[in-house]
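Notes to self after the call with IL:
- keep both proteins in one doc
- input above output, always
- annotate only the second one for now

Protein 1:
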Amino acid sequence: MKKPLPKSKKRLIINWCLVGLCVLLLSGVLIADAVTNNVTDVAPTKEQAQQTIEEALASLPLFKTSWCATYTAQQSTEIEIVSIEQGAEREYVVHVKYTRPDLGTLYKEHKDELFAVAYQTTLQGSSNASTIQKALSDHAKATALIEQAASMSGEADIYLYSTLQGDYVMHLSDAAVDALLGDVAAISKDIASTNEIRVDGKFVSIANNNTIRRGVDQFFGTANYDDAKPDTASPLHQKINDIKDEFYRNFIEDDHWKYLAEGLGNTLAITALALLLGIVLGIVTALIRIVYDKTDKLYYLDKIVKLYVSAIRGTPVMVQLLIIYFVLLLPVGIEKFPAAVLCFGLNSGAYVSEIIRGGIMSIDQGQTEAGRSLGFGFWPTMWHIVIPQAFKVVLPSLCNEFISLLKETSVAFYIGVADLTRGGIKIRSQTYSNFMPLLAVAIIYFVLVLGLTKLVGILERRLRKSER
């Protein structure tokens, strides 16, 4: 009869089977993705290219009431496909001849008139960009300008990309949009940079009036589109590319990572200073209670520190932070950072005191009696005999308290402290992305906690060696 396998070997076999299964699944996903990505694409016909370009241009007007863009895209622009050439991977260069209104010249010549209509609309009480847009569309002179705009012809290279689904996507670059839709991308950029207009021969500042600019822009109106090359990669590669783009947008672009770096520095500074304050308060509070328990001295101090510990342990740290800053310190002009340090120091001190007191009280009474028999007084006995033994007992609990303190500082942003959490929220407010900034904050906290746990583990091993 065969002996059953030891539990350790069974666990090892199971672990290796799970690893093999994960590798097999990952290999299958990668192979399927590679096969999908290498599907041979077919060049579009002239009819397909014509339809793709026309549909892309028709999708650009921002609203149905964006009369200018709609008129240009659907009625005025004429496109003739000359030839189609194979470009880079899944890319086709479509050479086109076009005829469309010269909106760029028209806009430059009549810019003041269009902005004057928009300005007069706001003087009539309208503060809505859509109302300005409609006023321009209904304005007989404005619409006549568009309808009477001179035509211009030219040639352009339009890039189409084949997707894995067999469709084609037009690259809506600014150059392509301007070429086929009448310079509307360039016009939009000029409108966005306009801070002063001429009305009745006088210059009027609209630097702080975004409504006028949006209304005029919507009259020429194109929808927001991405100037980047269309992503025709496989689903897995698209997901990887999306993650790369999201990472760049949240951390690299405009140096957003600096918010996290600054917040991390403030978080570590608050934690370190609050830790020192908490240790001092904890030791003093613990000793006062121990002296009273063992000698019945310091009665009133014992009552005070008991009230302090009960109050701190019985209320949430965020409520303590709000009371300490807004009620006690803000009226006397104390800044946010020292208020956060004081709050977390007081909070930590209450928990540290109970940890230390519990550790000291756990030491056998015989140790104290042995010290007394050697001629030590109360304090020398505590310092040389009891506290060294208690330190080894309370070290794991103190480590947990320090880790909790590090994580609790994340609520400091409620009073405006630029800590790590606030850094992530600031990035989120600028990029409108929830996942990446908050995940980065969580990972940073996780790494800090792992590092602190590792250091404490090293210290515990050294203490065990010293015992031997």
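Protein 2 (the one to annotate):
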Amino acid sequence: MFPSELHNTIKDAKVVAVLVIDDAAHAVPLARALLRGGIGVMELTLRTEAALPALRAIVAEVPDMLAGIGTVLTTDQVDQAQDAGAAFAVSPGLNATVVEHARRKGLPFAPGIMTPSDIERALELGCRTLKFFPSESSGGLKHLASMAAPYLHLGLDFIPLGGLNAMNMADYLRSPLISAIGGSWIAKRHLIDNRDWTAIEANAREARQIADQSNP
């Protein structure tokens, strides 16, 4: 469900900043700080009311940022994300009704998976780029490699999220299974709330440098 151009953009980016934002006024300076640090893809999670207004602001004012929406749990949220200009949407698990609705709407969608059964259901729904969540607590890269082995001939790739950081991201990015990693540590909620754009830019730059040195 990810068009090839979008898939390639995310794969080239290698890192997706995953964010919880409480004030839409922080959206534009946050996106600009990430870009200055070399991160050009972000996922705004639908855990606060500010997420959709923040997305609209970024789409309007920071066109160089590829911005998507995460924690999409309902068909209404698919519609809202698309109306707000989301480039893609992501969910923590696999809800077939939501995935099918996103497909009908033409919104690129990556469902969350953690088991072989999840992968097979995702394949049935036409998905090839999948979110591996929660990554570290469910066995990390070792678990993913074992689980994905029977399906590799089908052209799957994965975006892991959950427990990743600057210390372990390189291991994931060296795997041919991984198209990009999700980084929630890059712009933590308290850094955004405190408008610490300098720290966020520094975290983004560190992640960018690690990613660039981790070609599989």
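Annotation: The radius of gyration is 16 Å. The domain at 4-212 is CATH 3.20.20.70 (TIM Barrel).
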